[in-house]
Design brief:
The complex is a heterodimer of chains A (98) and B (151). Chain A folds into two domains: 30 residues; 57 residues, no CATH class. In chain A, 15% of the residues are buried. Chain A has five helices and no strands. Chain B has five helices and no strands. In chain B, helix 2 packs across helix 5. Classes of the chains: A mainly alpha (98), B mainly alpha (151).
Chain lengths: 98, 151
């Protein structure tokens, strides 16, 4: 009974998602077309100017390492701190040496 | 059941010996072509670290202790972070993170789409890839070395 209910609910969720995610008559996530160009102009700026301003053919790398370089510095710092903290917390402490 | 200190048997060891170089080459490709194709320093470094973790799992902790040098990996991680910051400092005359190598640099200023282009992006990709690889391998070795539970 429970298992049947679970499968039925999964099927229901799948149907709802299939309806919602359909681009023809589903929900619209944000504007599209020319309205998109006027509202989300930074996206278009990166796409059109990224190749000549930064020079990488991969626009994502252009954004991550040049336009959003501070974010990448923070990310590297977070990784460094996480590893340092993990090693510092995991290594045997004084009271563990029996 | 094997404990963590052991290796995982001859089948897994042979398969790992065959696949670890391929994983390493693929990760190096992702890092080196980070400014041209999808991927980059973080993703390629994590891929190479996957090869290291596969080595640790397949060959066991005793073999890993012989090959893993803590001081070397710490130094390499520091060098990666410093190279990243140094590449960002190159164009400090205009702004932090200004890509001066690409606009008027002596090298790394080729045609867009070639390997030696895009200014500091290849340097930063290599630095971040080195940093992520050594960091993740160090974290995994630390987890395996300093485990608290009993068998």
């Amino acid at each position: 009974m429970k298992r049947t209910l679970a499968y039925l609910s999964l099927l229901f969720i799948l149907g709802v998602l299939l309806y919602v995610a359909n681009p023809n008559y589903g929900l619209k996530f944000g504007p599209g077309g020319n309205e998109w160009l006027s509202l989300r102009y930074t996206d278009n700026y990166y796409i059109t100017h990224g190749l000549q301003e930064v020079g990488g053919a991969n626009i994502v790398t252009d954004i991550v390492f040049d336009y959003r370089g501070y974010d990448t510095i923070g990310e590297a710092t977070v990784l460094f701190t996480a590893i340092a903290g993990a090693v510092a917390l995991l290594r045997p402490w004084g009271r563990d040496e029996r | 059941m094997n404990c963590v200190g052991d290796d995982m048997g001859v089948i897994v060891r042979t398969a790992a010996r065959a696949t670890i170089p391929l994983i390493g080459i693929f990760g190096s490709y992702i890092v080196a072509h980070g400014h041209l194709t999808p991927g980059g320093g973080f993703q390629g470094g994590a891929t190479i670290a996957g090869a290291g973790i596969l080595f640790l799992l397949a060959f066991g902790l005793d073999e890993m202790k012989k090959r893993y040098n803590k001081n070397l990996y710490s130094a390499l991680e520091g060098i990666g972070g410093l190279a990243f910051l140094g590449a960002a400092m190159l164009g400090i005359g205009v702004a932090f993170f200004y890509n001066t190598l690409w606009h008027n640099g002596p090298f790394f200023s080729g045609k867009p789409g070639t390997l030696l282009s895009a200014g500091f992006l290849p340097i930063m990709n290599l630095a971040v890839g080195l940093k992520v690889f050594t960091g993740l391998v160090s974290a995994m070795a630390g987890l395996a070395l300093y485990r608290r539970w009993r068998e």
